[in-house]
Amino acid sequence: MFLLAAVLALSAQSVQYVAPAKTFVLQLEESTYALGVNDLNRVQHVYWGPRLQRPADFTPPRAAAAYAFESREGMTQEEYPAFGGMRYGEPALKASHSNGIRDIVLGYVSHEISGDTLKVRTKDITADLFVTLCYRVWPRRGILARWAEIENRTSQPVTVENAQSALWHLPDNTGYRLTYLAGRWAGETQLERELLGPGRKVMESRRGNTSHQANPWFALDEGDANEDRGRVWFGALAWSGNWKITVEQTTSRQLRVAGGMNDFDFAYPLAPGATLVTPEFHAGFTQRGFGDASRLLHRFVLTELAPDRRAPKPRPVLYNSWEATTFSVDEPGQKDLATKARALGVELFVMDDGWFGARDHDKAGLGDWFVNKKKFPNGLGGLIDHVHGLGMQFGLWVEPEMVNPDSDLYRAHPDWAIHLPGRPRTEQRNQLMLNMALPAVRDHIFKVLDDLLTQNKIDFIKWDMNRHISEPGLDRALYVNYVRNVYAIIDQLRAKHPKLEIESCSGGGGRADLETLKRVDQVWTSDNTEAFDRLRIQEGFSFAYPAKVMMDWVTDVPNMNGRSTPLKYRFLVAMQGSLGIGANLHHWKDADNKLAAEMIARYKTIRSTVQEGNLFRLASPSAGALTANQYVSADGRQSVLFAFLDHQQFRQNLSAIRLKGLDPLAVYKLTTIDDKLIPRQREFSGSWLMGRGLDFRLTGDYDSTMVILEKQ
Ligand code: GLA
User: Fold this and answer.
1) Buried (b) or exposed (e) across 382-417, using 16+ Cβ within 10 A?
2) How confident is the model at residue 363, as a pLDDT?
3) Tens digits of per-residue pLDDT, 291-310?
4) What is the overall mean pLDDT for the chain?
5) Does residue 8 register a pLDDT over 50?
6) pLDDT reading at 661 higher than 70
7) What percent of the chain has pLDDT over 70?
8) What does each C-alpha distance from 43 to 52, 80, 168, 219, 689 come to in angstroms?
9) Cβ neighbours of residue 400 under 8 Å, at least 6 residues apart?
């Protein structure tokens, strides 16, 4: 009876203080995270793993023992170790007082529990520098977030040189394996995996935004996890500026993950009375492998972060003019494309770059966000009315953070561009970055965008960012304030124009992270729309982010790499996320239009399953010639299987594809779109589909198919 009561007591509250053990227990549906105050009055990590049920099991945490060359504090799993005392690991915090003192040792002061949030207040042992360690749990989602609030209560300024959001500890052990996302322009979110040895592995951006080169997400397993099984600790940082995640395996078998804003060139001035709040670092734990880790993050984004989280709306099928017309946009040409797009079933027409200022090429015009009268003599109204008249939404491309030196804005305000006085201003893609950290720039950009949205019936903007930072200005707070002001502008725009939808783009997938996903409805995954490459880019993306925000276009061939794949293959690849078309529709033949219309109509019948359902990665494009992904709707009634064969060799036939996530006892009715499914039968039990699997006749190069399953 007592045990049951204790279980209920612990499960009823997501955050609990177990007083005898001086321990805080964060309870999620299937995992537990715990921290406590140790015998040195330091906040110490206690546990992160499968759910623990009994508070009485916790004993007060004790700092580790010391020996000649390791201190007690250095060996202890401290929750938020500052650079101070005898600590050599990656610090969570480093700061200098104006008198040159830069030793910080944080002791527990107090705590506060409010609903799903825990705040543990700590203070330096001598100075009035306070650090509050913040925790929030989403028990049903299996996700918790950590961040820190650093408050200068001294009478002098403090320079914060490193302020991580969190330092995570895994159980002491060796043999951990790191999975992470690295890449480049046109090759974003490539899945990388490596066994860790002693030392530090750093994933980061120093480029002023999230970056194509690395994405702020990680997963760690014990070397044996797969899509379905194995213990996986994972996390995603919510920050779109310079960031850093350091995975450190100490020689004492400790595994630590520090993550937050990058300390590279970082020096944030904290005036007396001021507080620096770090970004949130979200994390979770599962015993059901990488597939479950991804699904937990997907569900979390869809239900807790996404702008439409309270009333989810399907993402519309989009057409974007970029690859068809590049900068050569004008009213008749765009109207023509819109009419053709509508005939295929497109729901949102987006005019890309080229509509404003002197934007006939990428050398001029950025910053001048007024309509180019040569291309649109009567403004945007004619095109927008045409698009709306066809029953589509209208979207527009903008790149608000940028300026071409050849622009009226730059001629008027050369000082608004990020620069170092007396140093060259590196131009990349012929453009400079505006210093969004300056209030005048922030207010100006808000006003031009607000005017644009007020004067035109624009339903959607594609917010682009086509270069990275250089010569980053004298004020080092820029790294933080730039990003905060971009967020603030988007927040203000959304508040004032509540129906507005936004796509985040940065030359493809350079700005995809959890903080961005609080503010945008979708992300442009990559400028690389070549379908075979896309399978890999989309696979990596799917480890961290849901299909609904993953924008995928069908474009023309030959495409990147000089590769040509069939239109059907291109459609099926793109239908695994939010579907768009970026092809030049003037070049499409009747047969292309017919296939496209059929595929778009088909997509509309499965899109809620793809966009809002659960993803099961059945066969990885990194592992072989077959790629297979399956989506199961949240209510389990519909499932969709996509399968792609890149190339057949040695006349090998495919092995059966075994499905996942179905009800073994239920019967499913199968709908095919072609003759690739070998069995003639069209009804199978879940147990057969998952146990025996389905045989397909996929042959040659770039073959593909899709099967829709409806639960009977
Ligand atoms: C970036 C985007 C593209 C397109 C161009 C326009 O490269 O990623 O989709 O919008 O800019 O200049």
Assistant:
1) ebbebbeebebbbbbbbbbbbbbbbbebbeebeebb
2) 98
3) 999 999 999 999 999 999 99
4) 97
5) no
6) yes
7) 98
8) 20, 7, 13, 25, 50
9) 369, 434, 445, 448, 449, 463, 489
Q: Which residues line ligand 1 (CB under 6 A)?
A: 322, 352-353, 397, 464, 466, 505, 507-508, 524, 527
Ligand 1 geometric centre to CA of 101 (Å)? 47
Side chain identity at residue 16, one-letter code: Q
Residue 290 Cα to chain centre, angstroms: 16
pTM above 0.90, yes or no: yes
Q: What is the predicted pLDDT for the residue at 272? A: 98
DSSP letters of 227-260?
SSSB-EEEEEEE-SSSEEEEEEE-TTS-EEEEEE
Q: If pLDDT is split at 50, 70 and 90, which confidence band does 55 have?
A: confident
Question: What is the tens place of the pLDDT at every residue in 129-168?
Answer: 999 999 999 999 999 999 999 999 999 999 999 999 999 9
The DSSP string of 364-393 is B-TT--SB-TTT-TT-SHHHHHHHHHTT-E
- Residue 152's H or E segment, with its range, is strand 143-152
Ligand 1 centroid–CA 280 distance in Å is 29
pLDDT of residue 486: 98
Give SS3 for 677.
strand
Question: Is residue 6 pLDDT above 50, yes or no?
Answer: no
Residue pointed to by tokens 């090998």:
652
HSE (side-chain half, CA atoms, 13 Å) at 143: 24
- Band (11; pLDDT cuts 50, 70, 90): low
Cα–Cα distance between 348 and 421 in angstroms, integer? 44
Centroid of ligand 1 to alpha carbon of 507 (angstroms): 5
DSSP codes, 49-82? EEPP--GGG-----PPPPBTTB-HHHHS-BSS-B
Residue 283, phi then psi, degrees to nearest 5: -155, 165
Q: Which amino acid is at 544?
A: A
Mark 115-132 as b/e (b = at least 16 C-beta within 10 Å). ebebbbbbbbeebebbbb
Q: Which of 184, 325, 352 to mutate to test the pocket of ligand 1 (most atoms within 8 A of CB)?
A: 352
Q: How far is CA 466 from the centre of its chain?
A: 18
Helix, coil or strand: residue 487: helix
Between CA 546 and CA 504 the distance in angstroms is 14
d(CA 91, CA 76): 13
DSSP string, 117-135: EEEEEEEESSS-EEEEEEE
Please tell me the distance from the alpha carbon of residue 613 to that of residue 607, in angstroms, as a whole number: 9
Crossing angle of helices 531-544 and 289-300, in 10° steps, is 80
- Angle, helices 567-574 vs 531-544, to 10°: value is 10
Share of the chain residues as helix, strand and coil, in percent rounded to the nearest 5: 25, 35, 40
**How crowded is the C-beta side of 180, counted as CA atoms within 13 Å?**
24
Which helix (H) or strand (E) segment is 275 a member of?
Answer: strand 275-277
Ligand 1 centroid to residue 473 C-alpha, Å = 26
What number of other Cβ atoms are within 10 A of residue 333's Cβ?
A: 17
C-alpha 308 chain-centroid distance? 16
**For residue 460, is pLDDT > 80?**
yes
Instruction: Please count the other Cβ atoms lying within 10 Å of the Cβ belonging to residue 362.
Output: 16
86-104: pLDDT as tens digits: 999 999 999 999 999 999 9
Q: Is 385 a catalytic residue?
A: no
Ligand 1, atom nearest to 352 Cα: 10
Enumerate residues 6+ apart whose C-beta is below 8 A from 221: 176, 177, 179, 230, 231, 232, 233, 289, 290
